[in-house]
Amino acid sequence: MFRASTHCGRRDVEHNGVLATCEELGIGFVPFSPLGAGFLTGKIDTSTAFSSTDFRGVSPRFTPDARAANMAIVDLLKRIAERKHAAPAQIALAWLLAQKPWIVPIPGTRKLERLEESIDAASVELTDDDLHEINDAASKITVRGARLFRGSAEADEPMTSSRVKSPGAGNRLKERRLLVAGCQ
């Protein structure tokens, strides 16, 4: 298993060979922070204030200017979510789940209703047109602001584990992938 911060607005692993290597070697891929530390839920905007203990308050990705510039990806998710009668977070997770059956996103939450919402993302059906729309629009958006501040102890270093196996496709398996990841 390989782990890296990945979501529809942060797709480095598609271009740096990580996903191709995972597929070639049969290694599962676990995108952590698949909701961009909450940004892709649509509940954070330029006026959102973060507590002094919230890392987003010091993250360059969450400055008001960066949030304003990065709202294009949230607006995209909101448009599709409205058509699908889903939440933007569910569209972001459904997009990841639609990429490959061995991709297992691990959305974090402290709230039961958010966990349930994340699990329900497995039931969101994205058509080929939806996926094309997301991929096309996201490829034209340049995400502003570094993910973490310089000198942070957190990094995008890979973490290996034997706890996650490569599951097959299907909604029930996607639900289990999200449920297991949400409970770890």
Question: Describe it for me?
Answer:
- The chain has one domain (2-183): NADP-dependent oxidoreductase domain (TIM Barrel, Alpha-Beta Barrel), CATH 3.20.20.100.
- The protein is 43% helix and 4% strand.
- The chain contains 7 helices and 2 strands, in the order βααβααααα.
- It has helices spanning 12-15, 18-25, 64-84, 88-99, 112-120, 128-139, 171-183; strands at 2-5, 29-32.
- The protein is globular and about 40 Å long.
Kindly identify the CATH topology: TIM Barrel
Structural domain count: 1
- Class computed from helices, strands and strand pairing: mainly alpha
CATH superfamily, called what? NADP-dependent oxidoreductase domain
Provide the low-confidence segments as ranges: 152-169, 180-184
Average the pLDDT over all residues and give the rounded result: 81
Could you tell me the number of beta strands? 2
Radius of gyration: 16 Å
Give the quaternary arrangement of the chains. single chain
Task: Set out the fold topology.
Elements lengths: L1 E4 L6 H4 L2 H8 L3 E4 L31 H21 L3 H12 L12 H9 L7 H12 L31 H13 L1
Parallel strand pairs: 1-2
Helix pairs in contact: 3-4, 3-6, 5-7
Task: Write a short abstract of this structure.
The protein is mainly alpha-helical. It has helices spanning about 10-15, 20-25, 65-85, 90-100, 110-120, 130-140, 170-184; strands at about 1-5, 30.
Task: For this entry, give a set of tags.
TIM Barrel; 43% helix; single chain; disordered C terminus; 7 helices; 2 strands; 4% strand; two-stranded parallel ribbon
